[in-house]
C-alpha cells in the first residue's frame, strides 16, 4: 500500500512549495518567505503546545513523525493539504482545520526554528 | 514582578546551568504557585509555568507519590502489550530540569482567605495562585456491598498502581472456562472508553491463555463511548466471549458480595472467578476541602480554568466540570496549558492567548486494531464548546487500524515527556 503522506512529503522535498502556487510561483513564494520571516514566533511557541502532546518536543518520532526543524514552506503546504483533506489523517485534518493563516505562519516559523 | 528584569532571570538560569541552586537565590521575592497533584493536569501545569516563566515564578508541586503510574496504557499492560515498569514515571525532570520544588506529601486542607495549603505532615505552603489537579476519588458505596476492603477481591484498578497488577494476576489465575465480570461506572467518570478498552484487553489475554472463559459486563448505562466500534471489534476478534448487558436487560445491580464473588441483579445472580468493579466517582478530596465543588465536581471559567468559587484557584483535569470535554489525560494536559498561560499572565504580565483545547482518546480493541475519537474546543462563556470532532469509522482497513494504534504509542511518549521531562 502506498502511503500518501510519504509520497506527498517526498514530492514537497523535491519541488518545494512552487508545486503549490499557480499563477506566479516565484512571487507567491517570496511573499510566503517574507511572512514567515516576520512571523510571531512566540505565538507559534504557544500554539505548539497543542501539537507537542503528539509531536514530541524531544524530536523522537515513534508512531508520529517529528516536525522539529521542518522547512517552513513545506510545513505550510502540508498543513494546507490536511486542511483541504488532500492528506488523510483524521487527527491532523481536525488540528489543521482550525488553524488560520496567521497561526499557520507562526507555527511554521516556530517549528522550523527548532533543531531537528 | 517588575523589579526583576528578564536579563536578571537569564543570569539566574545561567547560574543554574553551572550547577548552582536557582530558586534559593531569589527565595521569597517571587510570586508563588502551588500545584496539588502531579498527574496529567498538575504535572503539565507545574512544568509549563516553571519552564515558560524562566524562573520568574516560584512553583511548588505537592504530589503524594514518588512515582506516577499512568492510568493511560494500564489496559495495555493488562492485555500484555506493555511492561508494568514502562508506565511508571518520576519527578526528576520536574525538579532538576525545570526548577520545580517537588514536595512528596499529602495536602490535607486549603485556607482560601490566608492563601495557604496545609500538608498532612503539618507543613504549610503559601501561594498567590493555587492549582488543584487531584484527579478522582471513588464513591465506593455507589455499588452496594463494595468497599475499600472489597477492592482486593474485586479490584477497581481505576487509579492505576498496585490494583492494576492485582487485576492482571487475578485474570491469569482464573479457572479454565471461568467467568470474568466487569462493572463499569455510571456517568460522568474518568476515561469514557476505558472500561470497554479494559474488556477488550482482558478478552485478548483470556483468548491466549484461557479461550473458553467468558466475560459479562453489567453496565449501569444504556450506551457507551465508541460502542459500535467496540462491539464490532469484540464480534470480530473474540466471537461469543463477551456479553454486554444493559440496565434494561439485567434490571439493575442490587449488590455485590466480595466473599462469594456474586453479583445480584434482577435478571440473575452472576458468579465470577475474577472481577473488576469501578464505582461512581467524584473530584479528589482536596477539592472538597478547598470548597470549590458544586456537587461532586468543580465548576470552572472556561477561558482560564479558574474555579468559579475563587479566582486564585484553578481546577484541572478530572476534578473539574470541563464539559464538553471528557475526563481524560489528554484533556487534563490541554487544560493545564490554558491555565499555565493565564496564571503566568496574571503573575508576570506575560502575553495571554485565547484558550484552545483538544482531546483524542485512542483505544486498543485487539493486537494492531486501534480506534480513536477526538475533538477540539474553545472557551464559551458558560462551557467549553466543541469546534470540530472525529471518530474512527467502522469500515476502516486493517492498515488504518494499525496506524491508529501506532499513533497512540507516539502520543503516549509525547504526553508523558510533556508532563515529566
Ligand atoms: C483504565 C484507564 C485508561 C485510561 N486511558 C486513557 C487514555 O488512553 N487517554 C487519556 O487521555 N486518558 C486516559 N485515562 C484517563 C486519565 O488517566 C485521567 O483522565 C487523567 O489521569 C486525569 O488527570 P488528572 O491530573 O486530573 O488526575 P491524575 O492523573 O489522577 O493525577 C492526580 C494526582 O494527584 C495526586 N493527589 C491527589 N490528591 C492529592 C493530595 N491531597 N495531596 C497530594 N497529592 C494528591 C495523586 O497522587 C495523583 O498523582 C484512562 C484512565 C483509566 C482509569
Q: How do the helices and strands line up, and which of them pair or pack?
A:
The complex is a heterodimer of chains A (116) and B (421).
Chain A: H1 4-15, H2 25-37, H3 41-48, H4 72-83, H5 90-97, H6 101-113
Helix pairs in contact in A: 2-6, 3-6, 4-5, 4-6
Chain B: H1 6-17, H2 22-25, E1 32-36, H3 40-53, E2 58-62, E3 67-69, H4 74-79, E4 88-90, H5 92-96, E5 101-103, E6 107-111, E7 116-119, E8 124-126, E9 129-132, E10 136-139, H6 162-172, E11 179-183, H7 194-209, E12 214-218, H8 227-237, E13 242-245, H9 247-250, E14 253-257, E15 262-265, E16 269-271, E17 274-277, E18 280-283, H10 285-289, E19 298-301, E20 306-307, E21 313-315, E22 320-321, H11 329-348, E23 356-366, E24 369-379, E25 384-391, H12 398-420
Parallel strand pairs in B: 1-2, 1-9, 2-5, 9-21, 11-12, 11-17, 12-13, 19-22
Antiparallel strand pairs in B: 3-4, 6-7, 7-8, 10-18, 14-15, 15-16, 19-20, 23-24, 24-25
